[in-house]
Amino acid sequence: KYTNGQITRIGAAKEIIGKDIFTIYEDRAKRVWIGTEAGLNLYENGGFRYYGEKEGFAATAVRTIYEDSTG
């Protein structure tokens, strides 16, 4: 997490599913979304949650993350 010029480690890399990180996005609720070649990882409440093909993604690689006006 990057705040006020400081980088804070939020978890070990082994907790993220995927070895290549393409994008990182912090939403309005301060959750961190991480797009990798293997899918989408969500960091929230001190842990990671993974979204991939089993969770309904048509393709695994997530290269861009956008938040719309409804969150």
Write the topology of this structure:
Blueprint: E1 2-3, E2 6-7, E3 21-26, E4 32-36, E5 39-44, E6 47-51
Describe the model.
The chain has 71 residues and is mainly beta. The protein is built from no helices and six strands. The chain has strands at residues 2-3, 6-7, 21-26, 32-36, 39-44, 47-51. The strands form two sheets. Strands 3-4-5-6 form a four-stranded antiparallel β-sheet, with no helix packed on it. A two-stranded antiparallel sheet has the order 1-2. The mean pLDDT is 84.
Give the key terms.
4-stranded antiparallel β-sheet, 0% helix, mainly beta, 71 residues, globular, 6 strands, 37% strand, two-stranded antiparallel ribbon
Secondary-structure element pattern, one letter each: EEEEEE
Strand content: 35-45%
Roughly what percent helix? under 10%
> Low-confidence runs (pLDDT<50, min 5 residues)?
none
Q: Tally the beta strands.
A: 6
Termini gap = 20 Å
- Mean pLDDT, all residues: 84
How many helices? The count is 0
Order of the strands making up the biggest sheet: 3-4-5-6
Please give the largest β-sheet. Answer: 4 strands, antiparallel
Shape by Cα distribution: globular
Class from helix and strand fractions: mainly beta
Radius of gyration over C-alpha positions, nearest whole angstrom: 12 Å
Summarize the structure.
The chain is built from no helices and six strands. The mean pLDDT is 84. The protein is mostly beta strands.
